[in-house]
Design goal:
It contains eight helices and 22 strands. It has about 450 residues and is α+β, with helices and mostly antiparallel strands. The two termini are about 45 Å apart.
């Protein structure tokens, strides 16, 4: 009961396509030194969108059954049920390393009130049942698929112009819900208008309130013929989950008056023709018959069995041979990655410690201890070729003994790690941080020298 993982939803019953937020929280009464996701929840039947959370987990306090817990958010996302019925959010499984008090093993631990050991816990959230109600039938023909709350806005920059001038028409969908479902509006523009594919601007955000924002479609239209034309309205329907009904939205319809512009040719081949350089017809291209003399050229030689043909074959064989040699070298280099990392372990540790020294001078405690920890464990993992998943004090101690590292050096290393772990969760002055930095530097160099 001192540590557990829980999945929390802001609602457990909703309509199909309606968004809700699920938050995975870690409740603990222990000091946490690290955690790792083991198995992500299977979100079958849901469309999901991750909510960004800080890398550094901030803790708050919650009371559960009369007991206060430190609580941190591990994962958070917005879910949209894709079909009706009973759906389930499967368990989320993580591994947590917690620090627990032990009896003092030396005078330093005794002065500090006892030692600490790292204990690994595997935690799993309970599955969460979600009840999804189907949308009412029949659905409107122009239903866009959004369940939430949206609005529709349109704007046109001019309604009176001359032929071959441009019109800018914009249509914006704004609100909350799965705005990615909104498709490009289908508008029946006049055939005398040249209409280009719209430029789409997405401004969709995902936060603690869910998915919201806007989606704008900018159309460029060019009338090729004078007259009065109508741009019909765009209709769009969505389902309002609060009102429990479909809502129909509609843009304005526009009457466009087009006068003859300079260079307009009333006898053009089609209603959209202006001149030879700008000939277009909706759905097809039309070109004038060429009346200039035709210049004929002698047909080139066949490529097959030409000098270039044989030269390319030779180049291909040489290129394949070079690739095989390069691949063999690459495989050999990859097989020695572990050895390379072991040789450069001390060098990498020094770089990390240099960064820790910068944080020390800037009095940034959290970043300082993070770099010290990274330097120590990164050095041991690289030097001893231990995967991150198996990296702990027991495994490190056994490997160091096999490498014939002195017992005093191993003890000094473990003491340094323990002191550093304790200092991360206890107030410490600059002098103590400098001592930890120096101890880490010394013990890394000693271990590197003694490993055979």
């Amino acid at each position: 009961n001192d540590i557990f993982l829980r999945a929390v939803v802001d609602k457990s019953s909703m309509y199909q396509g309606e968004q809700f937020v699920v938050t995975f929280k870690l409740y603990t009464r222990k000091q946490i030194s690290g955690l790792e996701a083991e198995k992500l929840p299977a979100l079958d039947g849901f469309w999901s969108k991750e909510i960004d959370i800080p890398n550094q987990i901030s803790l708050s306090t919650e009371n559960v059954d009369g007991v206060n817990y430190s609580v941190g958010v591990i994962k958070k996302c917005v879910l949209f049920p894709q079909h009706s019925g009973s759906l389930e959010i499967s368990p989320f499984e993580i591994t947590v390393n917690a620090l627990e008090s032990t009896k003092p093993r030396n005078w330093m631990e005794q002065m500090m009130g006892g030692g600490q050991k790292e204990v690994k816990y595997t935690l799993k959230s309970k599955p969460v049942k979600i009840n999804v109600t189907p949308l009412p039938e029949p659905k409107p023909a122009d239903f866009c698929g959004i369940v939430g709350n949206i609005s529709l806005k349109d704007n046109i920059d001019k309604t009176t112009l001359k032929t071959n001038d441009a019109i800018n028409l914009s249509i914006t969908v704004t609100g909350s819900g799965n705005l990615n479902l909104v498709e490009t509006p289908k508008i029946s523009f006049p055939t005398d208008f040249e209409a280009y594919d719209p430029k789409i601007k997405d401004n969709i955000v995902t936060n603690n309130n869910g998915v919201s924002g806007s989606k704008t479609y900018d159309y460029l239209l060019i009338p090729r013929h004078p007259g009065d034309f109508e741009i019909p309205p765009v209709t769009l329907s969505y389902f309002d989950s609060n009102k429990k009904t479909y809502v129909n939205l509609k843009t304005n319809d526009y009457i466009i008056h087009v006068d003859k512009g300079e260079g307009y040719d009333a006898n053009a081949v089609t209603s959209s023709i202006q001149n030879k350089e700008d000939i277009k017809y909706i759905g097809s291209d039309i070109h004038f018959i060429k009346t200039n003399p035709i210049t004929l050229k002698k047909k080139a030689e066949h490529f097959y069995r030409s000098m270039l043909f044989y030269l390319l074959i030779i180049v291909q064989f040489l290129g394949f041979g070079a690739f095989v040699v390069f691949r063999q070298i690459q495989i050999k280099d990859n097989s020695n990655i572990g050895l390379k990392k072991s040789r450069e372990a001390a060098k990498m540790a020094k770089k990390r410690l240099s960064k820790a020294q910068v944080y020390l001078k800037e009095n940034k405690k959290d970043q300082f201890y993070e770099e010290i920890f990274t330097a120590l464990w990164g050095f041991l993992g690289d030097k001893l070729a231990i995967p991150v998943s198996e990296l702990n004090k027991e495994v490190v101690g056994e490997r160091l003994q096999k490498k014939q590292v002195k017992e005093d050096t191993i003890k000094q290393l473990m003491d340094t790690i323990n002191i550093c772990e304790f200092a991360r969760f206890a107030p410490a002055g600059n002098s103590q941080q400098e001592n930890i930095y120096n101890d880490a530097m010394v013990v890394i160099m000693k271990v590197a020298e003694e490993i055979k």
